[in-house]
Amino acid sequence: MLKTAPKFYEVAKRIVEITEDCIIVAHNSEFDYRILRTEFKRLGFGFKRETLCTVELSKQLIPGQPSYSLGKLTRSLGIPVSDRHRANGDAMATVKLFKMLLNKDLDKYIIENSVKKAVAERRLNPNHKTIIDALPAVTGVYYIHDIDGKIIYIGKSKNIKHRVNQHLTDASTKSKKIQLQVASVTYEKTGSELVALLKESEEIKRNKPIHNRALRRHIFTHALYSYQDDKGYTILHIDAANNEKKPITTFTNRQSAKSFMFKVVEDYNLCQKLTGLSSTKSSCFNYTIKECSGACIGEETPESYNARVSQLIEKYSYDNKDMIIIDKGRDIDERSVLYIQNGIFKGLGFFDLNYQITNIEVLKSIITPMDNNRDTQHIIQSHLRRDKRLKIVKLPSP
User: What is the Cα–Cα distance from 331 to 85, expressed in whole angstroms?
Assistant: First the structure.
């Protein structure tokens, strides 16, 4: 392989060109960077670049691994490696590992410090068009930084380029403040809108960017609850979200909740009266047109009616369930995965289609732990209602 390879001085100029304004990422970067600097020194050139080491980052973000060698670490994390110990194979494995580390870095330590280093030497206001031109039209989360690398705004979009362009051209008060402070924009491709929403919610809470609106207590206002009446029927009702009660699912506003209820009444042949859509004291309207089996006037037994209500609750609530939710990934050969254990959202990650997630320990290793709060529950439940493409896999209880 080396017999016909070019000498270092023949490729040195190209190395300088492709690494200009870049940060070199490597597994044990100190070794690789030292080799590069030594070779350039022999040519009389002072080669200097910023570096990031995936060994050190892995120890920080994925503690407790038995080994941090590239081969053993990628194997334990389910990262497929081809051409092991060859430049291309190891480089691609390092890329996949680095993507996983970026995903696990919820405090944004990597990008904040990298941006701070990258902009330290230029104190002039950047050209907004240059920032926008460098962004992709993909689904993900974006981070707007000031000249010190500090994140001043976090957002998510199905089209990052378009959304950031709106921020930097809009005439609103908030946009004008962002325009005065923006030094750079970084982004994280997710492929999945659901993953982008969850990461945005988590990272705004963790990083508290100055230009994100003061967080509302919750991103939903109403919820669906159930109880049994004195005749044994399960009553469904929409009410304002309440910290004291456990909802079946939640909604951004009352109108979306009502629209959902009209749909499930039709889908599950439920009674308008027992779902709060009719306040009549006799039979509901649907009974008169033979679309209600008569639970409202006692013609249908509670057992028969409640069985259909239970189907609805089973579908739209993940309470006490062990399951994973699989969605689109960042690339065509990748998928995203959300892990729910005993009804509690544990976190999310990405996996290669060539690697089956059959081992629960491997699944846990690729998952970035995230908070299970009411906002994350709402985001997941609303997507389960709306997105038919989500694949749900039930897991055996531990």
Answer: 24
